[in-house]
Design brief:
There is one protein chain. The protein contains 6 helices and 7 strands, in the order αααβαβαβββαββ. By secondary structure, it is α/β, with parallel strands linked by helices. The protein has a 5-stranded mixed sheet. The protein has a two-stranded antiparallel ribbon with strand order 3-7. The model is unreliable at 171-181 (pLDDT under 50).
């Protein structure tokens, strides 16, 4: 007879534990949501706060041009690093962010032969391409090349990292990308 009374007690304890566990997970996610969702938020804000490329290439300031997509895991991973650069150099350099899923930017995607993202192109104040970074990059590497933008060095270097996202086939994007393979 006692086993019958202990069974509801076990069910009650199990329910209590599950409710407490659910509450803990919910509170944890609420407190640390920025940590988990910061990169996605940063990518969305990049596109919204971006300098228009037509303006960027005409205002005699160096330009940082990044091709990205919100689904790109490498782009999400690099977003905090890029945000640091934007915060530090935002007054001296144009920061342009073009989402490869937006047909509006197809001419730039084609012109700069983008098929691996993130792709960062650095231009001097005259609009001359100085460096291209494809894939995951260290912040220090990008900083080093940003410092070269103020010099008269004539270089055009491409740095490829094997950690990048291939652009997804999109029926709306009609261009022939180069291969990075």
């Amino acid at each position: 007879m006692q086993s019958e009374s202990s069974e509801p007690l076990l069910n009650k304890n199990l329910k209590t534990i599950l409710v407490l566990l659910f509450a803990f997970v919910f509170i944890f996610l609420a407190l640390f949501k920025n940590l988990f969702f910061q990169s996605t938020y940063l990518l969305k804000s990049f596109g919204e706060l971006s300098v228009d490329p037509e303006i960027a290439f005409k205002n005699n300031k160096p330009t940082f041009l990044e091709f990205y997509a919100e689904w790109c895991e490498v782009c999400k991973e690099m977003a905090p690093k890029i945000s640091n650069l934007k915060e530090e150099y935002g007054n001296d350099i144009n920061f342009v962010f073009l989402n490869v899923d937006n047909q509006k930017w197809n001419n730039y995607i084609s012109k700069y032969e983008v098929n691996g993202i993130p792709q960062v192109n650095l231009f001097d104040g005259n609009g001359n391409l100085k460096s291209t970074f494809i894939g995951k990059q260290e912040e220090t590497t990008i900083r080093k090349y940003i410092a070269f933008l103020d010099t008269d060095n004539k270089f055009n270097e491409e740095i490829l990292n094997s950690e990048y996202s291939a652009i997804k086939k999109n029926k709306n994007n009609q261009f022939t990308p180069r291969s990075h393979g």
